Predict the 3D structure of the following.
Amino acid sequence: MAIMDLTEAIKTRRSIGKVKDDPVSSDAIKKILEAGTYAPNHYRTEPWRFFVLIGDSRKKLGGVLEDIARLENVDLVPDEWNKKAEKARNNPLRAPVIIAVGVEPGDKKNVMIKEEYAAVCSAIQNMLLTAHALGLGAIWRTGGAAYHEKVKEFFGLTPKGEMAGFIYIGYPDLTPKAVKKTDFEDYTVWMN
Ligand SMILES: Cc1cc2nc3c(=O)[nH]c(=O)nc-3n(C[C@H](O)[C@H](O)[C@H](O)COP(=O)(O)O)c2cc1C
């Protein structure tokens, strides 16, 4: 039996930027990860790489984000510079679970980098929908630091690899405001 009707999940999923500290079961995390691996991927390269951060590993990531913030904001006055660094350090503590999702392009002939990204982004959407269907709140976050060399190093990605984003996950601590969607017809040309 379905945990949530697909159309309902797609239409009710929203980015949840504020979640509770309550832990998320490893069973739920595994369901989210598994959903990622069912995404379409050209030449079956399976280019996604998942890094599950819980507990103190989030602080280690925070240390890396702090280093980046310090390097990128050297022109600020010390007070502002420290504020930026502190904010960056604390960012990963905003959710009990972060799944960092990386792209490692396959080395088969004809593989295109943009298609490897496309596959990993599809995986992330599967994961966001699954988190939502499980009653969890999730948000896909990037920001400049996500693509920084130090973040790549932290996760041990190869020179060809890159982060696609961080999925912050936890039990929702806000009700998202309703949004008005532009009618799909505005973006659609029916070509008969
Ligand atoms: C590639 C990508 C990166 C994103 N990075 C951020 C981010 O750094 N911070 C953030 O608050 N939201 C981020 N988002 C989430 C979007 O802000 C969010 O999807 C958008 O506001 C639409 O809201 P909804 O997801 O509730 O429909 C990102 C989304 C995508 C696709």
Notes: The beta strands are 48-54, 97-103, 137-141, 162-170. The domain at 6-173 is CATH 3.40.109.10 (NADH Oxidase). The chain has a mean pLDDT of 96. Residues 131 and 137 are 7 Å apart (CA to CA).
